[in-house]
Amino acid sequence: MTTVIAPHDRTEVPRDRTKVSPDHVEAAHGRAEAPRDRAESATGGPARTAEAVVTGIGVAAPNGLGTEAWWAATLRGESGIRPLTRFDAGGYPVKLAGEVPGFVDADHVSSRLLPQTDRVTRLSLAAAKEALDDAGADPAQLPDHAAGVVTANSFGGFEFGQRELEALWSKGGRHVSAYQSFAWFYAVNSGQISIRHGLRGACGVIVSEQAGGLDAMAHARRQIRKGARLVVTGGIDSALCPWGWAAYVAGGGLSGRADPARAYLPFSQDASGHVVGEGGAHLILENAEEARRRGAQVYGTLAGHAATFDADGGCRLGAAAELALADADLHPDEVDVVFADAAGDRMADRAEAEAITALFGPYGVPVTAPKSMTGRLAAGGAALDVAAALLTLRDQIIPPTTGTELPADDCLLNLVTGVPSPRLGLPLRTALVLARGRGGFNSAVVVRAPETTA
């Protein structure tokens, strides 16, 4: 039912050639790859101009379960980073994480499904249901194959796999659950969401770590442009178990500090690494015309996306941002706020700050990193940032970066810290969301407020 999809979606010809174009950026960065969408348009395939809008949001985050609870906590600057409780981390050098609080599995998953699923799938099912309820959408009323699901995931069902490994080595192969055959897999979240809600259209999963949430949304937008009416999209991860923790620690980059308030300080001179967490967000992406026809609320438009890869060892995050703006047919001075990837590593933070500064100028645009309150959520991190960006445009207020008091001298950013910030009386209409995935993935998404806002 599910397929793993490569994260490509960089590509439409801007309407105004006086603005940055994908060709210009590709040439500047030494690429000659033919954009996929443009090639497909040349074949006379489906029109690729359908507008894709977000009509529903579902959230499972370390500082709040449910969209409004999480958003209120985020605006209050409440962090969900705490000492681990899901297992005894006393023997590990890192003991802090962002755990989703108050999640009772049986409240969200049937007794029949509980033995078949990992925690990550249960979180995904809860967020998808919240998003669909929020959108007021009933996929059962849509034609066959008109609704689908494309999510991102990085770890699969790590905790489920750990339990089955324990059974294998302590009792033998006959004691390994048959559900291990799919419960561990990256695509299981998309599959279970599809089954629960009868989404019989395009279905898949993106694997590009922290960039995955954005890449999944781009692929969902592609499905909308191919004729789908509704796609559940986004990303959620959870691997807070001893086996997952061993992998995180071995991967490096984690802060070993014991003080939750000082462990993850993106763009700070005192940055010491990041904290990992679980959770993320699912969104409902719909064809704009269909959404308006049924009177759905609209949080905003997914206006642009691009993905790049650090194939030559250099940072190509800036190229992704430029290409995404070109895809959205926007100039940098039309961007009102940037949601940063915010690695919490001095070298990576400096590279991201340079990319932002190259595009907007020193201190040229408000920048924020609310993931400082959740930790980095792998595939869920950027998806949650898109949810935050859409609510920023709705409520006209920018959530803060916590922990960091001032950016380092070599990070020339207008970083929003301490308390939420309004845009000094100016309307917030456009947000750029950046993400980098371990291994060299870069992704950028542009979201715009609905025309009725501001």
Explain the layout of strands and helices.
Blueprint: E1 4-5, H1 22-28, H2 36-42, E2 52-61, E3 64-65, H3 67-76, E4 81-83, E5 96-98, H4 105-108, H5 119-135, E6 147-152, H6 158-171, H7 180-183, H8 188-197, E7 203-206, H9 212-225, E8 230-237, H10 242-251, E9 279-287, H11 288-293, E10 300-309, H12 317-328, E11 337-339, H13 346-360, E12 366-368, H14 379-395, E13 414-415, E14 430-437, E15 441-448
Parallel strand pairs: 1-7, 6-7, 6-8, 11-12, 11-14, 12-13
Antiparallel strand pairs: 2-3, 2-9, 2-10, 4-5, 8-9, 10-15, 14-15
Helix pairs in contact: 5-8, 9-14, 12-13
Description:
Helix content is 32%, strand content 18%. With 454 residues, it is of the alpha/beta class. The strands form two sheets. Strands 1, 2, 3, 6, 7, 8, 9, 10, 11, 12, 13, 14 and 15 form a 13-stranded mixed beta sheet that branches. The protein has a two-stranded antiparallel ribbon with strand order 4-5. α12 (317-328) packs parallel to α13 (346-360). It starts with a strand and ends in a 6-residue tail after the last strand. The chain contains 14 helices and 15 strands. The model is unreliable at 1-46 (pLDDT under 50). α14 links the parallel β12 (366-368) and β13. The protein has helices spanning 22-28, 36-42, 67-76, 105-108, 119-135, 158-171, 180-183, 188-197, 212-225, 242-251, 288-293, 317-328, 346-360, 379-395, and strands at residues 4-5, 52-61, 64-65, 81-83, 96-98, 147-152, 203-206, 230-237, 279-287, 300-309, 337-339, 366-368, 414-415, 430-437, 441-448.
